[in-house]
Amino acid sequence: MNNPRDSLSEALQGWRVSPPADPNFRPGVWQRIGRQTRATWPAYLRAHPAVWSLVAVVMLSAAALTGTALARARTQADREAIVVTYLVDLDPRVQAVLKP
């Protein structure tokens, strides 16, 4: 019984690809690399507007959230300091417990 899997394996082992050599391949590669290195930053940004717009939105959102959290923490700390100072000014006996 002839197994089709064996004939496929034999055919694949005997198969060789020999493409013709392109004499302009290497110079063409270096030419494309040279074009990419001459690209300016604004040209790169114009070529990829969606990606950099998304990056800008994410960065601005992260900065806004961080700034908001820091501002709330600072406001809370200031409020607590004001409360302590107020209580100490109202009743000097509280100075032993609350220190500004």
Present the secondary structure layout.
Layout: H1 4-14, H2 25-37, H3 41-47, H4 49-90
Question: What are the salient characteristics of this protein?
Answer:
single chain; 100 residues; mainly alpha; 4 helices; 73% helix
Describe the main β-sheet briefly.
Answer: none
Strand content: under 5%
Total number of beta strands: 0
Q: What would the principal axes of the Cα set say about the shape?
A: elongated
- Euclidean distance between termini CA atoms: 96 Å
Radius of gyration (CA) equals: 36 Å
Oligomer: single chain
Unreliably modeled segments? none
Overall mean pLDDT stands at: 85
- Report the helical percentage: over 70%
**N-to-C series of helices and strands:** HHHH
Structural class: mainly alpha
Task: Provide the number of structural domains.
Answer: 1
Report on the architecture of this protein.
The protein has 100 residues and is mostly helical. The protein has one domain (25-96). Helices cover 73% and strands 0% of the residues. The chain has 4 helices and no strands. The protein has helices spanning 4-14, 25-37, 41-47, 49-90. It is elongated, with a radius of gyration of 36 Å.
In short:
With 100 residues, this protein is mainly alpha-helical.
